[in-house]
From TrEMBL:
Pfam families: FAR1. This is FAR1 domain-containing protein. InterPro entries: FAR1_DNA_bnd_dom (IPR004330). Residues 156-233 form the FAR1 domain. PANTHER family: OS01G0519700 PROTEIN.
């Protein structure tokens, strides 16, 4: 069940226009919506196919998402607890541990930061690993080992984001080998000249790629060529490329559900930015266009009956 859809649409304490962006300080109602969103996403990631137990086979990227959802829900819980403490101090029992600050302490809630040690405890990675090591080519050097292809792809994607290029899948053979490469590999294709939008090709015959082969129970890097034939982008520029502005299907479904429940695109974008943080690479315009296309598709389906 999507609990967010059970909440009243009039929860927002902002009496202005619905399209107005929410303030940087969450209201109590917004905090409660934030908790529901994060719990829904925790359920989406953690439940197994049988809906009977929690998954224990999370990838590094999934562990990172779980930590973000927990941190997001914790921030919102502290916001609500602080409000109730200020409104009705009797809710705070002296004999019970409180998650709100006492009167002698400053009444403010500092934002949570991603705790990489916590991520490591979830995934079993040595806690001495620093996230900046993804920018080190040694993490993709010949001989580097990964438990799954998903872990290898996650590492290569992190490296690419740090260095400033996009990636794509190359040649592969199931359970034998897999190639990942810079998206600028290959030659530019000749296109029709009468097209309305004829973007310049990004293909530059780039040779940057890695090849992994299945050896025993893990995937090992057997080829690693990380030099490029083109200029690289900054981290901010790479986020704005069309490839990285793609909205994943499960987030599209989440946004559509919120839109159908009466939320404005601006408010939906706020929730998604707060929930996914740096993983939210699409712009407000991208989200609006997606929702508009969805609305037009529904209109066409209705008119065809």
């Amino acid at each position: 069940m999507n609990w967010l859809l059970q909440s009243p649409m009039s929860w927002s304490e902002n009496n202005g226009d619905q399209g107005e962006f929410l303030s940087s300080v969450m209201s109590t109602a917004e905090a409660l919506n934030n908790i529901i969103l994060n719990v829904n996403n925790l359920i989406y990631v953690l439940k197994d196919s049988a809906n009977s137990t929690l998954r224990s086979d999370l990838t590094n990227s999934e562990n990172e998402r779980v930590a973000k959802y927990i941190n997001g829900a914790s921030q919102a819980l502290n916001r609500i607890a602080l409000d109730f403490y200020m409104i009705s101090p009797s809710f705070s029992s002296p004999s019970a541990p409180s998650i709100v600050k006492s009167e002698d302490e400053e009444k403010s809630v500092a934002p949570f930061k991603d705790d990489f040690d916590y991520l490591n405890s979830l995934s079993g990675i040595n806690s001495s690993i620093d996230i900046d090591l993804y920018a080190d080519p040694d993490c993709l050097s010949i001989g580097a080992k990964f438990e799954t292809l998903e872990d290898a792809l996650y590492t290569f994607q992190k490296y690419a984001n740090k260095k400033g290029f996009n990636i794509c899948k190359g040649n592969s053979k199931q359970n034998v080998y897999q190639e990942y490469a810079c998206s600028a590999r290959g030659k530019a294709r000749k296109r029709e000249t009468d097209r309305k939008r004829n973007r310049k090709s990004t293909k530059t015959m780039c040779k940057c790629h890695i090849i992994l082969r299945k050896k025993e129970d893990c995937w090992t890097v057997t080829t690693s060529k990380l030099e490029h034939t083109h200029s690289l982008l900054t981290e901010e520029q790479i986020k704005m490329t069309a490839k990285n502005r793609y909205i994943p299907d499960h987030i599209k479904a989440q946004a559509i559900a919120l839109y159908q429940a009466g939320e404005s695109p601006a408010k939906i974008q706020y929730f998604l930015e707060n929930e996914y943080q740096e993983l939210c690479t699409w712009s407000m315009k991208d989200l609006y266009n997606m929702l508009y296309r969805r609305r037009e598709t529904i209109k066409e389906e209705i008119s065809s009956y």
